[in-house]
Every structure is written in structure tokens, then in C-alpha cells.
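Human: I'm a chemist; would you kindly supply sequence and C-alpha cells for a protein?

Assistant:
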Amino acid sequence: MKILITNDDGIFAPGLCALTQTFRKAGHEIYLCAPSHQRSAASHSVTLTRALTAEKLQIPGTKAAWSVDGTPADCVRLALNHLCPDIDVVLSGINHGANAGIDVLYSGTVAAAMEGALTGKRAIAVSLDVSREDTYHLAAELALSVMEKTMHVQLPDYSVLNINYPAADRALGLKAVPLRLTRYQNHFIETVLTSAVSEYRLDTALEELAEHDESDYSWLRRGYATLTVLSHNTTDRESTLRLGSLLSLT
């Protein structure tokens, strides 16, 4: 198959390299299109006010590779619409740091996969616990296994398979589980620069709102990898229809 690999950590990140090597060894045709530099937490932002620049690179194991001065979503848009449109699967990662719970909303890794999913491609996002830099190959092998075993499984339209690999030396298994309900408690540290200008640095702490539910967080902590199917449709249909009936002016 023809695989587009992207990420939000940049074109030369070790996680992207691990995916390239693993999927190439399995016989797949690899195309890379990734940001030229670190774009973590870019979410699904896209570039509208300037032109994008893409530099073609020679990277071993790839059919073609481009470094783009844009966001992860930009990279997938440009690749699928112009650079290499004949792609079967969009693979994003391996992110250095889990994308579990609320982090899927901020993640450039997940957004890149979602951009691929919105074009109708099978899309997978892969992330590794931030404490590890030596097990990218294991996360890549798991991603390959998940892709091969699920390619013919019917999934909701425009959905992403979100994989997280734990901090364990080797995952104890794989659990298909929902996201944990989480949010960030945000605090800004102020530095006064002049009488009119201050600088603010963000300091955050994760708050888990459903401590006892089985979720991606609970299984990752036990040493299991997790898989969650994500959808772009965040509508609460029942509540929307109920309010529509209540507020109807007709």
C-alpha cells in the first residue's frame, strides 16, 4: 500500500523515522510530508495568509519526502491534494508524548490524521509516552499490526484510530477503550518587562474528571497500549434536538 507519514514533531523526528523504517520493511511504499520544525499542539490549524514552501528531500526508505513550513494539517492537505494524492493510508506520528484524554483536541499529530480521515482515507495517529525515547520501534510495530488487522474493518466515516504506547519496556497488550474525561488547570506566570508590557508563560496541570472509569489513562498506567476510535463530529445530537424544540420560533 501507499502510506503517507506525517507528524507534528518535525521531518527529522525519531518517531517519524521509526514508522518509515517499520512500514517500509513490511513492503509498503512510503511518502513523507511533515513540518520543517516542531509544531506540537498546533491542533487543526491551517495556513491561510501566506504561501506554503515545500522542500523535496532525499530520505532513505521513502518514495518521496517533503519538508513543509506549515502545520501538520497543512502537510496532509498539500500532500493529498497535490504532492502525492494516490495514497491509501495516512499515518501520523510517532508523537513524543501520549495523546490521550483532552490532548487529542490540542494535538497536531491527531489533527494531521483527522485531516486525512476527512478526505476518506484510513487514518491512524500514533503516540509514545513522553518518558520513553527508546521504544519508538515497538510503537511502530504495534501501529503496523493494527493497520494490517483493521484495514477491512468497517469504521465510522471520517474517523481516526488513535494509538498510544505506554511507558512500559514492552506493552502488556492492547486495549480498545474510550478517552478519559480530562481538562487542564491553567496558570500563567507573569514577568513584567516594562510598565506597559508583561510576558506570560503557561503552567498547566491535568485534572482527571472521571477518576474511576476504565479509559485510555487507566490502561496506559498499567502498561497497556490503547486504541480509541475518534470522530470529527462532536455534536451531542440529543441535546441539540431537545434545545431546538424548546427554542423553536415556528
Notes: The mean pLDDT is 94. The chain is about 30% helix and 30% strand. Residues 2-179+213-247 form a domain with the Stationary-phase Survival Protein Sure Homolog; Chain: A, fold (CATH 3.40.1210.10). The first strand starts at residue 2 and ends at 6.
